[in-house]
Amino acid sequence: MSVHKEHGKWRVKYRTGGNQRSRTFDRKRDAVTFDAETTRRRQLGPTLAADLDRETVTLDQFVRSGFRTHAATLSPSSRAKYAWALEKHLGELLDEPLRAIDVPLVIAHQHHLLQNGRSANTAREALIYLSGIMQAATEHGLIAVNPVRAVRKPLADREEVRPFTPHQLEALIASLQGRDRIIVVLAGHLGLRPLELRLVPWRGLGSETLLVGKAQTKRTARRARAIEVPRQTAQELREWRLHCGRPGDDEPIIGPISAEGLKSWTRQRLHSRVVTATGRDDATLYTLRHTAASLCHYAGLTVPEAARRLGHSPTLHISTYAHVIDGMQGQRFDGFDELIAAARAELSESAVPSKFRSA
């Protein structure tokens, strides 16, 4: 192997895989560096050379190379979240070799985030995305283990949910018509998530249950669930289907609407109606889902039964709704039909104090 000057450029001749090869450079320094590196790799052998290369791969280099293969399988929103974490919260680690990012360094960076104004939620989320990158690095053979998994992350700051009372929910439903009313009924009575609202088809509606399939719910809750439908809710849904001209079984119950369209509906339609009907200005679609969770306990369901209806674990249910359950103070009804009937009866008795206390 040697470096020669030919026609104003520097050519390096070397052998690889038994074949003679060459490469040209504009600068002699680059040619000499390449020649030295080629010689080093030949002396080390392919296995040791590859191992030494792995020691120098930085977080930034891996994100721009190997991690792209994994990122290609993610949704656009997930890729945006990784970019957000890297740009806003993981910049100090980008130049670190992957093998230098160990448990003490991750703990130190977590402390750095919290000390520099990031909330516990933000620090926790940033480490979750760092963990995803480091896990991909283990799959590429660049590191032995994912160090982020061993780090105890800060507890997320969770605000206590504030569901509507049954009376407030029925007042809101009574103020709406058409698709607006059906969206609130599905979210408030049955606890559908925003994604489920958009995707659950007429095929899933039976005489007494609504089936939410695996493909119609979020990825982390990928299991089908059958939700008992109260008689009043089932009647509203049947009337809505007739009003829509009997759409096909595969059509969404609320009709076609995008995720952004549903968000716009929440901002433009739901908020104003909620203020008028309940006097509250903090409602979202998830407020309706939280309300459906509270209705489960007014209707006498146990925690496991309510969790199955909502499609999450009993542990999550009790951690989210314990204060709601405690605040009911013994108010119970014999099922959803009696509960909804009692709440709707109150709408015509506005002079009578509500039997439903705010949780």
Euclidean distance between termini CA atoms: 80 Å
Read across the widest sheet, the strand sequence of neighbours is: 1-2-3
Give the overall shape, derived from the CA principal axes.
elongated
As residue ranges, the low-confidence spans are 351-359
Annotation field: number of helices? 16
Quickly give the structural class.
mainly alpha
Helix content: 40-55%
What is the ordering of alpha helices and beta strands? EEEHHHHHHHHHHEEHHHHHH
The count of β-strands is 5
Strand content: 5-15%
Average pLDDT for all residues? 86
Radius of gyration: 30 Å
Major sheet: 3 strands, antiparallel
List keywords for this structure.
359 residues; mainly alpha; elongated; two-stranded antiparallel ribbon
Layout of strands and helices, then pairs:
Elements: E1 2-6, E2 9-16, E3 19-25, H1 28-44, H2 46-56, H3 59-64, H4 66-71, H5 76-88, H6 103-115, H7 120-139, H8 166-174, H9 178-190, H10 194-199, E4 209-212, E5 225-228, H11 231-243, H12 259-278, H13 285-298, H14 303-310, H15 314-326, H16 336-346
Helix pairs in contact: 1-2, 5-7, 6-7, 8-9, 8-12, 8-16, 9-11, 9-13, 13-14, 13-15, 14-15
